[in-house]
Design brief:
Blueprint: H1 2-23, E1 31-32, E2 44-48, E3 54-61, E4 64-80, E5 83-98, H2 104-115, E6 127-138, E7 141-150, E8 153-166, E9 169-174, E10 177-180, E11 202-216
Antiparallel strand pairs: 1-8, 2-4, 2-11, 3-4, 3-11, 4-5, 5-6, 6-7, 7-8, 8-9, 9-11, 10-11
Length: 217
């Protein structure tokens, strides 16, 4: 009987893991930070419109999801020969908001927890950053590679995005993509580090989407 229960539990665990992996959109594997190539004198600089730029996030667990946004406080793009060649933007972690919880008290409770040391530790790491290291075209898409810095940890990631350059404006909108939060020391209730029941664990995957609009400096 014990063996049978163990087998059933193992099958359920594997099944849940497969569903989690399947649902992860554009899963990116973090690697060592890469050097940033300096742009040439011919590159045109565009400054981010902070009111129209944001990072959209979604976190998951077995019992549901939470989502929200984080503001981009400053940033810029470099364009050369009509193509995006570089850029950098700063993410204001203090501006994180939760959008899916209408009750004010519950919303504030989750928001406070996200800002705590269990997650983003905004008291010590008020800003995150993303710096583009490479832009290549692949299967008709722009693949954006860059160094993502969160909680002082810098790692290189890649995601697909649509880049529109129209005269004095540049718009970058990524497809939803997924990172493993534990790569940036966000380990709270991760199955890799906690011995908890499955319904108590929080998925290591965080889904993100970048939207940045900029105008010629």
């Amino acid at each position: 009987m014990k063996n049978q229960i163990f087998k059933v539990a193992a099958i359920l665990f594997i099944g849940l893991a497969m569903v989690s992996c399947k649902d992860a959109k554009n899963k990116t594997e973090a690697s060592e930070a890469q050097e940033v190539t300096e742009t040439t004198k011919e590159a045109v600089n565009y400054s981010a419109n902070v009111d129209d730029s944001k990072l959209i996030w979604k976190g998951s667990k077995l019992t549901g999801t939470h989502d929200g946004t984080i503001k981009i406080s400053e940033g810029n793009f470099s364009v050369e020969d009509g193509k995006l060649v570089g850029g950098n933007f700063i993410i204001d972690m203090n501006s994180i908001v939760v959008l899916d919880i209408e009750d004010a008290d519950n919303n504030a409770k989750l928001l406070s927890h996200l800002k705590s040391g269990d997650f983003f530790d905004v008291e010590n790491y008020g800003s995150s950053a993303f710096t583009i290291t490479e832009v290549v075209e692949k299967d008709g898409k722009n693949m954006i590679s860059g160094n993502l810095t969160v909680k002082g940890i810098k790692k290189n990631i890649q995601f697909p995005a649509t880049v529109s350059i129209d005269g004095d404006s540049v718009t970058l909108k990524s497809e939803p993509f997924t990172i493993d939060r534990t790569e940036w020391d966000i380990k709270y209730k991760s199955g890799k580090f906690a011995d908890l029941a499955k319904d108590k664990l929080i998925d290591d995957n965080i889904e993100l989407q970048v939207e940045v609009k900029a105008t010629k400096a």
